[in-house]
Amino acid sequence: MAITGIPTAALTMIARKHAGTRMGVLLQWCAKNLLPVLALLEAVGTLALMCYALLYEAGNLVNLPDKCIGFYNFCLWNGTAGQLQCLDTQHLQAMGISPLQLGLARVCVYTCLVFILFHIPFVLNVNSTFKGQGEGWKMIRIILFIKMIILSGGLGMFLLQTSHWIHPSDFTGGFLALLGTQALLLLQILTVTVYLSRAKHTHMCENLLTEEALPTKI
Fold first, then answer.
1. 3-class DSSP state for residue 216?
2. DSSP 54
3. Angle of helix 8-51 relative to helix 173-213, nearest 10 degrees?
């Protein structure tokens, strides 16, 4: 049966051709934008975990009824008073804890939070300005390495100073959120590295095709 003079088989072939074209365009868009979108989602997840650990949990890595230890608090259970007692600088020094190192750990971790706050707008700007190019994404990878080093250093200094009063089972949501942040930072580095590798390969292929298309001089 024909519709307006066009056979049904021809209509089916045209519909399949259009569907294949749309699918090809969709796959091309996904291949080009999947990794940048994934990097952006990972950055949003990193920000959410850092805000939970440092703002919602107030920097407390151990938050138990009988113990509260974090970047701003060091409270232990006082059996005589029957309540938590938060220790000041003099008490911490008497226990062998360096307030200076605790302060440096606090600065490192919260500096990482500031970096992450500005990271999402930066990723959006790079994705729109340097789309398909590697310069901006190389800078993003460097910043990710810096954030990972700062966060690891701050967390490491804190744990070295407080390890005698913290059992591994004492850690609560704040500490787990910081570990999740570390994992997401590493995942972002891997994502950006794969994106840069693919962008470099695509650029080399484009250059090769351009050279082949140029007329040969005789």
1. coil
2. I
3. 140
